[in-house]
């Protein structure tokens, strides 16, 4: 929840196949809540579990999909709101993603930084992604998201 907006995951929704998942955005006006949007990934498929985890900061939502397709490496999707309209900005995956990593099993967002956990990965705790804005006059500003680093688990003997 952020201010008067909440995102709620529905991982067993089946609009794009059994357990493909979705996420609902609700906004509060006065004392009542109303649905603003239903978010679906552009490439949703059965058993994605999109919406298992969600994070919201301002007009940016991050939604995890831990069982992406059949190989199960997982992914996370970034959506942004302009006015009342939500649109998918990017799908983030781990470059070294493997089956049962459950990438997207935990997500967080703050400003232009997203953290995505890979709950099944044994050597990497999380991936950082950052929003990069590149205004090139006289062209309009372009915004892209890219992974910037990997956080590694430390072990002690």
Description:
The chain is mostly beta strands and 157 residues long. It has one domain (5-152): Integrin alpha, N-terminal (Methylamine Dehydrogenase, Chain H, 7 Propeller). It contains no helices and eleven strands. It has strands spanning 5-10, 22-29, 32-39, 50-57, 60-65, 75-82, 85-92, 103-110, 113-118, 124-133, 143-152. Strands 4-5-6-7 form a four-stranded antiparallel beta sheet, with no helix packed on it.
Tell me, what's the shape?
globular
Under the CATH scheme, which architecture would be assigned? Answer: 7 Propeller
Strand content: over 45%
Count the domains.
1
In total, how many beta strands?
A: 11
Rg (C-alpha, Å)? 16 Å
- Give the rounded overall mean pLDDT: 81
Report helical residue fraction.
under 10%
- At CATH level 3, the topology is Methylamine Dehydrogenase, Chain H
CATH H level: which superfamily?
Integrin alpha, N-terminal
Distance between the termini: 40 Å
What is the helix/strand order? EEEEEEEEEEE
Number of helices: 0
Residue windows where pLDDT falls under 50 for at least 5 positions = 132-142, 151-157
Classified by CATH, the class is: Mainly Beta
Main pleated-sheet profile:
4 strands, antiparallel
List the helices and strands and how they pair.
Blueprint: E1 5-10, E2 22-29, E3 32-39, E4 50-57, E5 60-65, E6 75-82, E7 85-92, E8 103-110, E9 113-118, E10 124-133, E11 143-152
Antiparallel strand pairs: 1-2, 2-3, 4-5, 5-6, 6-7, 8-9, 9-10, 10-11
